[in-house]
Design goal:
The chain has helices spanning 5-17, 22-31, 34-52, 58-82, 90-98, 101-117, 119-132, 149-157, 170-183, 222-232, 259-268; strands spanning 137-143, 160-167, 190-195, 207-213, 233-245, 271-280, 296-304. By secondary structure, it is of the alpha/beta class.
């Protein structure tokens, strides 16, 4: 499509630097519908323009994505040998990963691009979009807003009066806030960013909808985190949750071995799953997922159960 100049340019540059990705990226783009491609183009065009204001050029952006892909391949190879993630506690990840601001900045850029170049991220976003537009209320909360795409999508619905975001990373929340400010000229909603651990900080609000994407695998005790989400939902409040099983990344510390393990934790937190999506990132038949420890992505909409 002629109007998809930004995403096509990104794919071309990635393919030139890493020819092994050319075929898979071309096939992926052909599988995307018009809406998602146009959404990707808008986001990436704005994201690149925003990073230019920080003196970050497209070369740096592409290299950051390729660095993330390389590091994930290293972790996947290690996982196949050991059956374990590299780290199993937050202290180690902080010392080795999160305290390295330069690496974390590049990692966040890489994750932002993967949102539009990976099938699992695409499908989970479309699943989120389909559900968030059906919910209205006073308060919306996002835990770990990351690249800001889901937060902006929630804002675009204009279905809530207050939009709050909580993140434990100062670098992440500042980058997200700045990007939101850059993209949104004005908004009638009350937008608030909170720096802190959702398990530790005091929040007096209760929320109609809470988004928490790709967070459970980054904590030592996901059950505790899910209980915090439960306590912050109002009666019949809903939450979008996404996580993964057997998905080695350098800052993943909690290993879910199957989708059933994920769902059991959600149900144990007194949340009822009302919609869900499961994506296999390997070419493995569903009957062999558990035996072969398939790399799986999972997302659901769950409702507070009294």
């Amino acid at each position: 499509m002629d109007n998809l100049l930004t995403i096509n340019r990104i794919v071309d540059l990635i393919s030139k630097k890493d020819p092994f990705q050319r075929k898979s990226l071309k096939k992926y783009l052909e599988s995307c519908n018009k809406y998602f491609l146009e959404k990707s183009e808008w986001y990436l065009r704005n994201y690149i323009s925003f990073l230019k204001t920080k003196n970050i050029d497209l070369e740096f952006i592409i290299n950051s994505y390729l660095l993330m892909v390389k590091d994930i391949l290293i972790e996947q190879t290690r996982f196949l040998k050991t059956g374990r993630y590299r780290y199993d506690n937050l202290k180690s990840v902080y010392e080795k990963v999160y305290s390295n601001k330069e690496y974390m900045f590049r990692y966040m850029i890489g994750v932002a691009l993967s949102q539009f170049l990976w099938k699992n991220h695409r499908d989970m976003f479309l699943f989120f979009k389909r559900n968030i537009k059906m919910v209205k209320g006073e308060n919306y909360l996002e835990v770990g807003p990351g690249h800001g795409l889901f937060y902006m999508e929630a804002l675009s619905t204009n279905n809530f009066n207050n939009y709050h975001a909580v993140d434990i990373s100062k670098t992440s929340i500042e980058m997200t806030k700045n990007f939101i400010d850059y993209c949104l000229v004005k908004s009638s909603a009350n937008i608030k960013f909170i720096l802190g651990d959702i398990n530790e900080i005091e929040i007096n609000n209760r929320y109609n909808f809470i988004t928490m994407g790709e967070v459970l695998e980054h904590v030592e005790n996901p059950k505790k985190l899910l209980k915090s989400i439960y306590s912050l939902l109002n009666q019949k409040g809903k939450t979008f949750l996404s996580t993964c099983a057997n998905a080695p990344v350098i800052d993943h510390i909690y290993l879910y071995n199957s989708i059933d393990e994920i769902k059991n934790d959600i149900l144990d937190a007194c949340l009822t799953i009302i919609d869900e999506i499961v994506i296999c990132n390997d070419n493995i038949d569903e009957k062999e997922w558990v035996e072969k420890k398939a790399n799986l992505s999972y997302a659901c909409i769950a409702e507070k159960r009294e």
